[in-house]
Amino acid sequence: MNPYKNKNLNEFITSIPQEVIEKNTHLQDEENKRVYKEFIDNLKVGKCFICGEKMSDFVEQKPCFHWFTYPNGIKKKNFENYLNKPLGFFQLDSYFRWLANSEKLFINVNDLKEETSTTSYLETTYKYKNIEWAFSIGYTDKDGHPNAQIGAFPHYHLQMKVDDRIFLKFNDFHIPFSDHDLFVLELLEQASDRVKWGHSFGHGVGIIEDEKNLEIIDDLMITTDDSENAPFNRHTIIEAPEGQTISSEIILQAIEESKKTKKPVGKILQELLTDAKTATIIVPGKGVTKMTKRSGKK
Question: Rounded to two decimals, what is the model's pTM?
Answer without folding.
Answer: 0.92
